[in-house]
Amino acid sequence: MTVNNLRAAAIADAMCDIREIDATGIDRNSIELIGKRLLELAKNRDLFPWSDFPSLASNDGSTLYLLSQDEDHRFALYIQSVADATEAPPHDHLTWACIAGIEGEEINRRYDLEGAGEPKISEEVCVEEGVAIGFLPDDVHSIHVQGGALNFHCYGNDLLKLPARNYWNAKLGVWLKKKVRFPIIDARV
Ligand SMILES: [Fe+2]
Hints:
Elements: H1 3-23, H2 28-42, E1 62-68, E2 74-82, E3 86-91, E4 97-112, E5 120-127, E6 132-135, E7 140-157, E8 165-169, E9 174-178, E10 184-186
Parallel strand pairs: 1-10
Antiparallel strand pairs: 1-2, 2-7, 3-7, 4-5, 4-6, 4-7, 8-9
Helix pairs in contact: 1-2
The protein binds fe (ii) ion.
């Protein structure tokens, strides 16, 4: 089998398990199980080499590759490839989300919401090899990468099909609604 076939089979297995976990209902426990399943997938290090998922300078140094998604746009799995540095301000996802480390470090900050005011940091987790983090639809996090990172990002729904998500704009001191519009490279085989 070629690397492409092995990768497709490993991804299909993982997504099959993740659909089953999702079907039991989404709560803190099930998103932790989804994170663990993604870490298992990440152990196939030779199937997800940097060379196949390069970060493109044209995408602000952070590039998202689509690995799998159902026909109804549920269960979207991506690889995020960051050459050096990237930041995402506090935001929610409107669906469950799991991030699992493959290589490098992605700092995730969780926030407590204070009404419509500035969210307060409640926890900081370094997502790296062997570490995953999960979020319920209303959970808020921010992302901070320095020195490059390759990670799985998995969502209950296709990011491009989600309604506008809520982002904290620190400059204006307000929450703004924004659709995901960044380019995503279709890397499905
Ligand atoms: Fe996010």
